[in-house]
TrEMBL record:
Transmembrane segments: none annotated. InterPro entries: Crypto/Photolyase_FAD-like_sf, Crypto/Photolyase_N_sf, Cryptochrome/DNA_photolyase_1, DNA_photolyase_N, Rossmann-like_a/b/a_fold. PANTHER family: BLUE-LIGHT PHOTORECEPTOR PHR2, CRYPTOCHROME. Pfam families: DNA_photolyase. This is 1,3-beta-glucanosyltransferase.
Amino acid sequence: MDPKNQSSDNPENQTPQEEQQQPLTLPIASISLALSTILPTHFLTPPKISTLFSSNKPNKVKIPTQVSSLSNLSLSAALPPTKPNFRSTISANPLQDSLTLNPFRPSEPSNAAGVRRASIVWFRNDLRVHDNECLNAAHNESMSVLPVYCFDPRDYGKSSSGFDKTGPYRATFLIESVSDLRKNLQARGSDLVVRIGKPETVLVELAKAVGAEAVYAHREVSYDEVKAESKIDAVMKDEGLEVKFFWGSTLYHVDDLPFKLEEMPTAYGGFREKVQGLEVRKTIEALDQLRGLPARGDVEPGEIPSLVDLGLNPNATMGQNGKPAANASLVGGENEALQKLRKFTAECQAQSNKENKTDSIYGANFSCKISPWLAMGCLSPRSMFDELKKSTSRTMSAASGKKDDGSGTGLNWLMYELLWRDFFRFITKKYSAAKQNSAAPVTACVGAAA
């Protein structure tokens, strides 16, 4: 070793002038660090580490983004010479043993400004790629994204009253919607991991397998769903992971309400009066290309379960003549929902050209008939409202001075239905989140709901 280098490495041999020259100012625009100065030689060999750096010059590290991300890079000479490339043992079988892998603990899990290596998107009642703030946020803040859907066993089987918690018709519609979501994700360079199991268990195992740093999900409103969110939040924090919740199930965003949720009016009339004139947020366009799946873990996508796998009788959806029952004619999925929306928009445009415009709210056309797809989140209320607003913008100008009493057609009638839906979801959220049991009863009359 060069004596000059020996002298400079020993703090006792440094002169005051050398000590002042030690701090190194790095340029922000372009940073290039020699690996030989910060890493032991054997650290350069593992394939996983080499993929983070430029392949043109193996002896240099190319920082692709912010200087602040360097603080999240943990480099240690004590690391083993090689890092095994393991295969995840997670399977679609709910009886599979839990993983014994150590969780990846980020140094700053709450730092959303930095790009995360991997994140999980937990799909729930938001089975779509259009107007999905949760999916888009994970895409923008992560280098890789793992979309996941869990068939929670607690949602199936018999209730305390002896009825199915989830009937065969709803379960069939859900299975079709999940299958359609997987196809839409695959068309954009991603995929959907499907498991049967409790989300608080499945998500932790998957996070350990792929080294995820955060879980993204949409909030829900019912008591059981809010309870599940609390479990996920607590378990993930124990593992050093961040959980980011978003709101996307109503026409009006919960943060835009002119009152606190605990002050939510218990009557529809009071709610409608308070939100009158409130602006609807713009929809979020679907991404043409999504982040790829995490390379670490090699997680299997898993098979989408059948009714038998969920403990349901497939013959229950068949009529006495051996053919599918009338309720089984509904097809789940985002693509089907978009087709229904286009058909409904065309009907509204056709009705606007008739002299008698009130006949569209009676008989079979009293509603837009898109409730099942809204309930599963195959279609968002905002995108539905936005699409109809664009298509009928020319015909709505003539009726703009007319009082919206719910008796109009097209956009006015749809707004009336979606407002009822918002009211029920917000009032459910209010009381499911409340800790007191002596809450005032909901006062609402019977009305149309989308």
